[in-house]
Design a protein that fits this description.
about 60% helix; Conserved Hypothetical Protein Ylqf, Chain: A, domain 2; single chain; YihD_sf; DUF1040 family protein; DUF1040; about 90 residues; mainly alpha
């Protein structure tokens, strides 16, 4: 895991861990894994799953994925013109 991913993971993890200070780090990671639907061993839990779960925790089922929101166009015509390079 690169340094910027570690920094991002720790920044996302801190507020959630402060809400449950009685949990150990392993217990918190296990809780996050269960919330994400991960059923494998904790050693196989990827940082991508943790980052996604921490970003989307508390959001509704129909919430947009944070990385995709910037590319989302509500108007089909605008999306088509951007894809063709007519609009920026």
């Amino acid at each position: 895991m690169t340094e910027h991913r570690i920094t991002e993971l720790l920044a996302l993890l801190q507020p959630h861990w402060q809400q449950s200070p009685e949990l150990s780090l392993a217990a918190l990671l296990d809780q996050l894994a269960k919330e994400a639907g991960f059923s494998g061993p904790l050693a196989e839990l990827s940082d991508d799953i943790l980052i996604y779960q921490l970003k989307m925790r508390g959001e509704g089922q129909d919430a947009m994925i944070p990385g995709l929101v910037k590319d989302c166009e509500t108007d089909f015509k605008t999306a088509l013109l951007k894809a063709r390079g007519v609009l920026k």
